[in-house]
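Email to the structure team, subject: Mitochondrial cytochrome c oxidase assembly factor model.

Hi all, the expression group asked for a predicted structure before they design truncation constructs. Nothing fancy, just the tokens so they can compare against earlier work. One-line instruction: predict Mitochondrial cytochrome c oxidase assembly factor, return tokens.
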Amino acid sequence: MIPNILRRLQGGNLEVFKVSSALIYMSSKPLQFLSFQCFYNGLSPACTNLFSLQFGMYVLFPIGWMYYFGTNLDDRFNVKGFWPTAEQSHKIPLDKEEIDKELSRMRMADALRRERQQKEQEALAAQAQAQADTQQSQASQ
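Reply from the structure team: attached below.
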């Protein structure tokens, strides 16, 4: 893509664009750019040091991670009782009878929840009425 743009550009801005595009490429991927230059220009002592550093990081990072955190991460960071047991987890009903039983249980739970909400609303309405009555009686005195 960049060579096509360079071919279209002509004049004094061409050199500026070449420099700025090279700087953008170098800043976005510095290690890969240096590795490419090392292969392109031949191996030098600086390039071998870079490759040694990269290889050391690739090999030593997972080893250091396992040394610091350990290899039994499931047992080490496990919170007891976080995941439900097989008895507590949801079992999908497969038979028609199980489906009907689950639907009746869900409808019963919805009815109980609805009754509880109605009682709470009635209690709140009664409390609000009682407060309004007390305020009205205090205002009339």
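The chain is about 75% helix and 0% strand. Residues 32 and 107 are 63 Å apart (CA to CA). Ping us if the truncation boundaries need rechecking.
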